[in-house]
Amino acid sequence: MPRVVLVSLAFVLAAAAPKPSFEPSFELVQPELFSAPGGQPNAWADFDGDGQLDEFVGFRGRPNRLYRQDHGRFEDVAAKAGVADNVETRAAAGGDYDADGRVDLYVGFIDGTPNKLYHNDGASHFTDVAAALGVNLTGISRQVSWIDYDNDGDLDLFIAFRDKPNRLFRNDGGTFTDVTTASGIGDPRKTVGAVWFDIDGDGDLDLFVANQNGDTNGLFRNDEGRFVDVAREWGVEAPRASEEFGGVGATVADFDRDGRFDLFVANYGPSALYRNDNGRRFVDVTKAAGLLFEGHATTPSWGDYDNDGLPDLYVAKFLVNVTHYRDHLFHNGGTAFHDVLTPMLDQHDASHGVQWVDFDGDGRLDLALTNNDPGGGHYLFRNTMPASSARRALLVDVVDAKGRRSLPGAEVRVYAAGTRRLISSGLVDTGGGYCSQNVMPVHVATADASHVDIEVRARGKITARKALRIADRGMRIEMRIPQ
């Protein structure tokens, strides 16, 4: 992994790199290891604290796996780590709930088995503490998110269900209190996907939920810890024509570089792209953007695979008994999106999990997919675009004053140095990629800029800035956020 670099406010001009090509190029990583079918959620984090990202994959039909990375090579250590549950798994989320500096793991099931909260013991082993902490819930678990909804500095726990009201637990120094009723967040509709972000710029995290089986979507505005559903007023309710239609996955990015985070929702039926209109409402721009398509779309995920500053979009699709139901990889051309799915991706597609992740820290976003079709696999692709384009990116670790990753939903923006020309932006992950949550640096592009300003906004305030000279390769930097 690239070293963490300390950056001063002084920098030297560097020659601008050539504009990257948008043509995607990927190769399979350890295909013999990642060949087993049945994968559903997949979550990335540095679970063993060695500075390298590892991957947890939840399965249907086989024990779950935890892939430990050793400089680009992976090994399944789930049994040794104590997380190899052989129960159908539909949710996985990493988060340091007890603020001890180690990433813990919440795993959600669907067959009546109580969910588990695996405490990271720090010796490459995990212990289930869900029952002791009162979060061993049962139900058809979907999106799990570790977020700080009340801005008190620790990670709270949200769990979405498809068969019962969603739940929210407030974290009080490592213990949990059920605040579902008090907060008003207990949506009883059939939730599948959920994503947290600050829709109105008021400094706290709001919640969008994608609901299935004919149910409308919800958009829960956070009003000082009390949530109000404003989906209809904000234009994302999406009334359904029948019970066959509904929302599945949701993902957030600033696709048009106007400084505000927009929303894409994968649906059974027409999927939808909603542009954030000045933090007051969302506007459906699906057709104008070239993203109007119908089908059983399950999982969307934004990722700037060519480092041009414009986030691209992978959309997984799934239909029972149909192998290789065609996915989409939409390149963002600035004015419209175009499907550039390669034969390699088409032959090794996703049905559920989609994660963009620079697992080897080389500045190029790689792609991890899971497919629970009988002939599917859970593939890992290395991005093989030219090194000259790979260097045009930064990996930004957003941590609190004590170095802990306690700020999901924090916003990272890159500007041309000395200006307010926005080049790219990203969020510290709050959930997505199919019922998963990662704990990993934010990948942001620098495009053709030779030097840039980086800005982090957390809890509604610009809390950190740095000026950078772009080096000959991608850099990983740390942005510490004061309490």
Explain the overall architecture.
- It is a single chain.
- A hairpin with a 5-residue loop joins strand 3 and strand 4.
- The chain has six helices and 36 strands.
- 53% of the residues are buried.
- The longest helix is centred in the last third of the chain and has 5 residues, at 343-347.
- Helices cover 5% and strands 42% of the residues.
- The protein is mostly beta strands.
- Strands 18, 19, 20, 21, 22, 23, 24 and 25 form an eight-stranded antiparallel sheet that branches. A five-stranded mixed sheet has the order 9-8-7-6-32, with no helix packed on it.
Could you list some keywords that capture this structure?
36 strands, single chain, 8-stranded antiparallel β-sheet, 483 residues, 5% helix, mainly beta, disordered N terminus
Fold topology:
Elements: E1 26-28, E2 39-45, E3 54-59, E4 65-70, E5 73-76, H1 78-81, E6 89-95, E7 104-109, E8 116-120, E9 126-128, H2 130-133, E10 141-147, E11 156-161, E12 167-171, E13 176-178, H3 180-183, E14 191-197, E15 206-211, E16 218-223, E17 226-229, H4 231-234, E18 246-253, E19 262-270, E20 272-277, E21 281-284, E22 294-303, E23 312-317, E24 328-332, E25 337-339, H5 343-347, E26 354-357, E27 366-369, E28 380-383, H6 387-390, E29 393-400, E30 411-416, E31 422-427, E32 436-437, E33 442-445, E34 451-458, E35 461-469, E36 475-481
Parallel strand pairs: 6-32, 29-36
Antiparallel strand pairs: 1-28, 2-3, 3-4, 4-5, 6-7, 7-8, 8-9, 10-11, 11-12, 12-13, 14-15, 15-16, 16-17, 18-19, 19-20, 19-22, 20-21, 22-23, 23-24, 24-25, 26-27, 27-28, 29-33, 30-31, 30-34, 34-35
